[in-house]
């Protein structure tokens, strides 16, 4: 009489087979065990708790931080005939009461609830009076204090286990670097849980980074050439840049909408709803946009600014191509990004330990940007996963990067920093190296220093690239007080003394790349 999980999958959801570890995870939870599920976005996490919720007696409680999306998820389930409801601050007291009655009458298989509501006395005592089928903790990385999605209420969720030790729990996340994973286990008391770790590779996403010159213009030609009428997301660091970029794209004939935390809530809701429902909209957004967005046909994610970690980058780019069809992750990146992010981290109120971790994460991101190897290998390696062969679907695979012995250039670049008193940024230093005849240089007497004009063998663009790579590799520090002035570090010395050589990547010539058009 009882349906098997596979029968439910077919009858209700209309799919013929489980994907990856879904079947195993479902069995684990139905059997009463705990599970920690690490699966990339689009991997199919929801079914891992929805099906056990239908099989196990009682009501499953799904904790989700995404109030805005609960309604959509519940609507979708109801259309399939699943008995689901949600409880959050958007309901009137009458509506909330009706959901509570449904739970008491065992008329619901799933109830989605916001964490702050779950932990109220009212809700906890309601749970005492019903049979809880399981607890599902979605977006479990919100328990991590290191991530940008941190939710203090998530830490309290360990109380559920103390109060209902026999009820199975399933925690799910798409963020899976090792520190976050162990924090989830520790804070949610999931030591006994079976861990299901899927591959994080998203083979249909093509990763590409271009050197930042005129980012808006570069974005425009990328869109015109490759995605003239596709849906996509453009991420910017600041609200102002979001507004400007959205207006710019609108002016160029694109259906672009802004999204950031500074916009009124109803406008944000409307823009999100339009992005989900209409075709070919470009959402220009800060990272406030995106968590849990389930739009299968996002064809590109473009970054105009550097994310602060590879986890963030992976999450954000992961919103592209959830339908499995080819999609682009495209980013502009330059020295200014590094300076900006270092400055933000330095200037934050956080303690030293936190800053150090943030800096390490940024270094991981920079390593990815500067690599001459397959980007996918670098990224998966960061998440502890090995990819045996280069992927063939990233820019470094498609257009192998040349390297060159940059030791002498690095020595010149470093000594120019030193000779000019460690108080200037890369643009000025470049002018000195190529020996530009500028009033400003003469005023400082830098036309008399030994490095003036010693760098004529490289173009100004190439010197900028040298400085960017030196900063990214930690061989040069950025002065946070001095408007991005470059300074030497301990690591500069071995290079200056000729004890260490350095290989640099040869960035593609910008003018040529622009003329050649599309990569490949
Ligand atoms: P996640 O929460 O991991 O990002 P979802 O649970 O939203 O992913 O699933 C992503 C998409 O894949 C959804 O459209 C879902 O219906 C679909 N999906 C999930 N499991 C299967 C399956 N076994 N077969 C086919 N499609 C599936
Ligand atoms: Zn590759």
UniProtKB/TrEMBL annotation:
Enzyme class: isomerase
Protein name: DNA helicase RecQ
Gene Ontology annotations for the cellular component aspect, listed alphabetically: bacterial nucleoid; cytoplasm; replisome
One of the GO BP terms on file: DNA repair
The gene coding this protein: recQ
Molecular function GO terms recorded: 3'-5' DNA helicase activity; ATP binding; DNA binding; four-way junction helicase activity; hydrolase activity; metal ion binding
Keyword DNA repair among record annotations: yes
Residue span, Helicase C-terminal domain: 215-365
């Amino acid at each position: 009489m009882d349906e098997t999980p596979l029968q439910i999958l077919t009858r209700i959801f209309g799919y013929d087979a489980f994907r990856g570890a879904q079947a195993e995870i479902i069995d684990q939870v139905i059997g009463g065990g705990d599970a920690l599920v690490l699966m990339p976005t689009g991997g199919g996490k929801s079914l891992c708790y929805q099906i056990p919720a239908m099989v196990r007696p009682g009501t499953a409680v799904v904790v989700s931080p995404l109030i805005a999306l609960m309604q959509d998820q519940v609507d979708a389930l109801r259309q399939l005939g699943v008995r689901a409801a949600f409880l959050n601050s958007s309901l009137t007291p009458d509506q909330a009461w009706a959901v509570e009655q449904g739970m008491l009458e065992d008329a619901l298989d799933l109830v989605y609830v916001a964490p702050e509501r779950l932990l109220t006395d009212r809700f906890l005592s309601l749970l005492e009076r019903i049979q809880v089928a399981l607890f599902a903790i979605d977006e479990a990385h919100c328990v991590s204090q290191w991530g940008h999605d941190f939710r203090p209420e998530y830490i309290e969720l360990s109380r559920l286990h103390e109060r209902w030790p026999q009820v199975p729990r399933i925690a799910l996340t798409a963020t899976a670097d090792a520190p976050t994973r162990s924090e989830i286990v520790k804070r949610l008391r999931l030591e006994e849980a079976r861990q299901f770790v899927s591959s994080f590779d998203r083979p249909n996403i093509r990763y590409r980074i271009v050197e930042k010159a005129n980012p808006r213009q570069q974005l425009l030609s990328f869109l015109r050439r490759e995605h003239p009428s596709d849906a996509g997301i453009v991420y910017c660091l600041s609200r102002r840049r979001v507004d400007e970029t959205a207006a710019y794209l609108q002016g160029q004939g694109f259906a672009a909408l802004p999204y950031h935390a500074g916009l009124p809530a109803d406008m944000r809701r409307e823009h999100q709803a339009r992005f989900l429902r209409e075709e070919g909209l470009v959402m220009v957004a800060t990272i406030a946009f995106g968590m849990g967005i389930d739009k299968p046909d996002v064809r590109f994610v473009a970054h105009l600014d550097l994310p602060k970690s590879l986890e963030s980058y992976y999450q954000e780019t992961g919103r592209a191509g959830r339908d499995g069809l080819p999609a682009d992750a495209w980013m502009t990146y330059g020295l200014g990004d590094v300076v900006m992010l270092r400055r933000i981290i330095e200037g934050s109120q956080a303690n030293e330990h936190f800053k150090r971790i943030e800096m390490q994460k940024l270094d991981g991101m920079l390593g990815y940007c500067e690599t001459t190897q397959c980007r996918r290998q670098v990224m998966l390696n960061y998440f502890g996963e090995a990819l045996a062969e280069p992927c063939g679907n990233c820019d470094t695979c498609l257009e192998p990067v040349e390297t060159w012995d940059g030791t002498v250039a690095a020595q010149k670049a470093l000594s120019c920093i030193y000779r000019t008193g460690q108080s200037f940024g890369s643009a000025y230093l470049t002018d000195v190296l190529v020996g530009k005849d500028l009033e400003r240089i003469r005023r400082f007497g830098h036309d008399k220093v030994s490095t003036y004009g010693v760098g004529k063998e490289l173009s100004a663009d190439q010197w900028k690239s040298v400085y960017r790579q030196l900063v990214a590799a930690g061989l040069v520090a950025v002065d946070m007080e001095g408007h991005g002035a470059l300074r030497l570090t301990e690591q500069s010395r071995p290079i200056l003394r000729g004890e260490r050589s350095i290989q640099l990547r040869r960035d593609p010539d910008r003018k040529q790349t622009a003329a050649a058009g599309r990569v490949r």
